[in-house]
Design goal:
By secondary structure, the protein is an alpha/beta fold. Helices cover 22% and strands 28% of the residues.
């Protein structure tokens, strides 16, 4: 099978298309024949060699996959050969024509979703889901400020909060205001031009997808007893701390087929839709990574495998 990998750290152009023997699933594992792959900023960050924790070389990027179960290992009963699935099996290894993973990391492809749409969902969906659940409260009736709502995680988070009965205040540029409103945001603000000072302290949960919310004063908008969920930035931040009555959590995404199944169920009901900014063939992975690295991507970039 073909895989896209790097034998040294560097930019997107360092990726090469190699041929390797297809893996076989072990006990508790499945082999998924890839139909589409989600592209995420963590892919080029790991590839660059500048991330705080680096994977071993050669590096196969990719933490999102959608495809068809090709084979199952001993003891697997949750899925069978021929099932369409989506998964976040880890932060690497998905830029390949097939991927072995724990069966517990996979969930059904949402009804009505193409494989490309399915591949856009796992990593960002789990990041948003686990971040919002870190607060521990039912979102119904709460006000959630989503910082960078037009990005991959943000677009899913907006829809997730609305599906669970919350109110969304979203930050976005003027070019993305209508897009974010269409996702369900109740209010869209560009805090680069709108003053934070004087605004009511009425935010229950701040989902920080940029990493600069403390410096820009957005933390000051969180009411006492509220939460700040740090997704981006603060790599060395404590897993939990409390500052002036506000709880702060640092959340790092982890695989969970059970949680992904809950997200897929919302997608099957039409409560979460895929937002694909760019779709390219697998052979153009370097181009997809360069586009992601350039920033200002609305939604997700997806690679398709023929």
């Amino acid at each position: 099978m073909k895989i896209m990998r790097a034998h040294a750290f560097g930019g997107p152009d360092i990726l090469v298309l190699d041929e390797v023997e297809a893996p076989a699933p072990g006990a508790g594992q499945i082999l998924v024949r890839t139909k589409a792959i989600g592209v995420n900023p963590v892919d080029w960050k790991l590839l660059s060699g500048t991330a705080p924790v680096l994977p071993p070389l050669p590096l196969v990027p990719g933490g999102d996959i959608a495809g068809i179960v090709d084979a199952v290992g001993a003891g697997v009963e949750s899925v069978k050969a021929g099932d369409p699935v989506i998964a976040h099996p880890g932060l690497t290894g998905c830029y390949a024509e097939a991927r072995v993973m724990d069966a517990a990391h996979a969930a059904p492809l949402p009804e009505g979703f193409s494989f490309a749409e399915g591949a856009s969902l796992p990593l960002v969906g789990l990041t948003a889901w686990q971040g919002l659940r870190a607060d521990g409260r039912d979102l119904a009736g709460l006000t959630v400020l989503i910082h960078n709502a037009a990005g991959g995680v943000g677009t899913v988070a907006v829809q997730m909060v609305k599906a669970r009965g919350g109110r969304v205040v979203a930050t976005a540029s003027p070019a993305n205001t209508d897009f974010v409103r269409a996702l369900g945001a109740d209010e869209v603000v560009d805090f680069r031009t709108a003053p934070v000072e004087g605004r009511s302290q009425d935010i229950d949960i701040l989902l920080d997808l940029v990493g600069n919310s403390k410096e820009t004063g957005l933390w000051s908008l969180v009411r006492s007893g509220g939460s700040v969920i740090r997704i981006a930035g603060g790599a060395d931040a404590a897993a939990f701390e409390e500052l002036k009555g506000v709880r702060a959590y640092k959340v790092r995404v982890r695989p969970s087929g059970a949680q992904l199944g809950e997200i897929a169920a919302l997608a099957s009901q039409g409560l979460i839709r895929a937002e694909i900014a760019l779709q390219l063939p697998f052979a153009r992975a370097a181009e997809a990574l360069a586009a992601s690295k350039g920033g200002h991507v609305r939604g997700k970039i997806v690679l398709t495998v023929d």
